[in-house]
Amino acid sequence: MxxxxxxxxxxxxxGELLLTGEECGGRFTLTSLSxxxxxxxxxxxxxxxxxxxxxEVRRQLDAYxxxxxxxxxxxLAPVGTPFQxxxxxxxxxxxxxxxxxYGDLAARxxxxxxxxxxxxxxxxxxxxxxxxxxxxxxxxxxxxxxxAAGVERKVWLLTHxxxxxxxxx
Length: 169
What we know:
Elements: E1 3-10, E2 17-24, E3 27-34, H1 55-65, H2 82-91, E4 100-101, H3 102-109, H4 116-124, E5 137-138, H5 151-160
Parallel strand pairs: 4-5
Antiparallel strand pairs: 1-2, 2-3
């Protein structure tokens, strides 16, 4: 069977999201969710656009941003190395409204302390932002380390989820 790549965009409080998926024999899987500012994000071409294929993704994203959804349940098909896939899968074990450190995540994965950087690199390559919540991984000292869509969006997401207190202005 032929697999066809489809894309759409979706408004969000963080800006316009880019959704990419694969359709094959009437089945749909989400392969990528990118936030504005992420390098290497492809444009949506008219011939690849299919808003209907993403109806469930959009429904769950709306519920997440409205505070009614704390865990996504979507068919996923991210592309990565076996190590990256293992790191991305482990992200689903970090509860909504909680954070973990890079070191703690590495320890749970059995990654030696000297190789924590590899965990950070895998997180930076996560193609399913929000759905696989790499924004919940922070520095051991509580600092907001890199995020593919910008640290300010990481802070927004963690505040939205209640893991950070809103900043007083």
